[in-house]
Amino acid sequence: MKRVVITGAGTINPLGDSVPATLEAMREGRCGITDLAFRDVERLAIGIGGQIKGYDPDTHFNRQQLSLYDRFTQFTLLAAREALADSGLEFTGELADRSGVVLGNSGGGLLTQDENYRAVYEEGKNRVHPFVVPKLMNNAAASHVSMEFNLRGPSFTVSTACASSNHAMGQAFQMIRTGMCTAMITGGSESMLCFGGVKAWEGLRVMSKDACRPFSATRNGMVQGEGAGVFVFEEYEHARARGATILCEVLGFAMTSDAADIVMPSKQGAARAISGALKDARVNRERVGYINAHGTGTAANDKTECAAVADVFGQHANDLMMSSTKSMHGHLIGGTGAVELLACIMALRDGVIAPTIGYEEPDPECALDVVPNAAREAEVDVVLSNAFAFGGLNAVLAMGRA
Amino acid sequence: MTETMTVQDRVIEIIAEQALLEPSDVTLDSTPESLGIDSLGLVESIFAIEEAFDISIPFNANDPSESDFDISSVASIIAGIETLMKEQGS
């Protein structure tokens, strides 16, 4: 079994357009959730989201590229460029053949679909741009990353709703651990903030109209966000031989299915994924100092997640910290685990635990240390990242210090 | 389409934009290949022409030579457009 380390990170999300900017915002407990701005927003009941503002695609891509890149692909490529530059890796020869791209994503090119459905249904147009299909397909981002960086090994997209990124990164981890690949570009992205995208979410009646307040007794729902997080996962000996900077080590991964309900979470399913990741990582539960929670800010998720953590950790649940950075960047759905992995890296590398902001009042059903409102300095050895998706699909990653 | 711009000028402008060239570099006997326009670029050019002239062009990217629309040169593309504009009453 090979060891797997992370040697590069990149992001664009509501908190910032780079890893340093994002970590600074997390340290300061800044909120990236603002008023949504797009066509027909006044017809929505939900008017807030973690929307990336002040972003100009023309400064990053030419006209020809933009005719093929949906917003989720643009975000992915920007994050991938930062991650690849950070890692210092270049893919040629055998390394290119043994390296690939596994990315999480749920909505694909939803903005492209929304725009073109509008053109043909609402505006009655009978002709659409020829690249609608290659632009909206869920694997577009993974494919464009493979093309831009010459990654010729296994590449595909994982789509498991809110757990997409964690499933993708878990897959990348396993592909390197088993010796199948030398390096993998992994993480995820999402861009669903358009009229049709938010309207669909409204239907579920789980969205907050004012803020995402995970674990607070006053929480009233989730808030959507957009963006991407991309990482370079690399086989440890390969990274060491080239003198790469190692951000952290990926120690273990587990996934489970609730096999119960299409939307309601299950304590058992979540607990099995958490304990599975510890077992896979071969670490004692007492070594876990921080958990980046799924923490959506819905009534159901947060109490179920806290109960699962209490079950798995017993007495130690009172000693560890668990925060939800969704309070700051919103729920990036298929890209959320990737952006949240940055908080895990910050905990391990910088000894800074990102806070759960917007926390107003304790909830007896969420009686853990959720690092309320202000970041905290703490040395931690092992961290977990939780993702529990609609459809009852759970994916938990365990990371350790470099 | 502005009154002062002929079909020829407009087509050359569209094709030049697709080929990332100046309109002066595109001549009537230029072919899509000589201008470096690949199959995706060709499909995008056809789309831009349909939008510009509000016509529908019978073009199948699976086998362009089998289409009724002759894309072998800039001149043949212009001639085809003029015929379609008459037929489709644009």
Describe this structure in words.
The complex is a heterodimer of chains A (402) and B (90). Chain A has 14 helices and 14 strands. Chain A is α/β, with parallel strands linked by helices. In chain A, the strands form three sheets. In chain A, strands 5-4-6-7-1-8-14-13-9-10 form a ten-stranded mixed β-sheet, sandwiched between helices. Chain A has a two-stranded antiparallel sheet with strand order 2-3. The longest helix of chain A is centred in the N-terminal third of the chain and has 17 residues, at 71-87. The model of chain A has no long low-confidence stretch (mean pLDDT 98). Chain B has a single domain (7-87), classed as Orthogonal Bundle (Non-ribosomal Peptide Synthetase Peptidyl Carrier Protein, Chain A), CATH 1.10.1200.10. Chain B starts with 6 loop residues before the first helix and ends with a helix. Chain B has three helices and no strands. The model of chain B has no long low-confidence stretch (mean pLDDT 89). In chain B, helix 1 (7-19) packs antiparallel against helix 2. Chains A and B meet through loops of A and helix 2 of B.
List the SSEs and their pairings:
The complex is a heterodimer of chains A (402) and B (90).
Chain A: E1 4-12, H1 19-28, E2 34-35, E3 48-49, H2 63-66, H3 71-87, H4 93-97, E4 99-104, H5 110-122, H6 132-136, H7 140-149, E5 155-158, H8 164-177, E6 183-190, H9 195-203, E7 227-235, H10 236-241, E8 248-257, H11 267-281, E9 288-292, H12 299-313, E10 321-323, H13 326-329, H14 336-350, E11 352-353, E12 376-377, E13 382-389, E14 393-400
Helix pairs in contact in A: 3-7, 11-12
Chain B: H1 7-19, H2 39-53, H3 74-87
Helix pairs in contact in B: 1-2, 1-3
Which value, in Å, is the CA radius of gyration of chain A? 20 Å
**CATH H-level superfamily title of chain B:** ACP-like
Instruction: Compute the number of structural domains of chain A.
Output: 2
Please report the first level of CATH classification, the CATH class of chain B: Mainly Alpha
